[in-house]
Amino acid sequence: MPYCYSYPRLAVTVDILVLSRAGKILLIQRKKPPFKDQWALPGGFVDLDETLEQAAIRELHEETGLHFDTLKQFKVYDAINRDPRHRTISLVFYRIIDNNTDLHIEAGDDASSAAWLPIDELPELAFDHKIILSEFMDFITQNP
Question: How far apart are CA 46 and CA 32, in angstroms?
Answer without folding.
Answer: 18
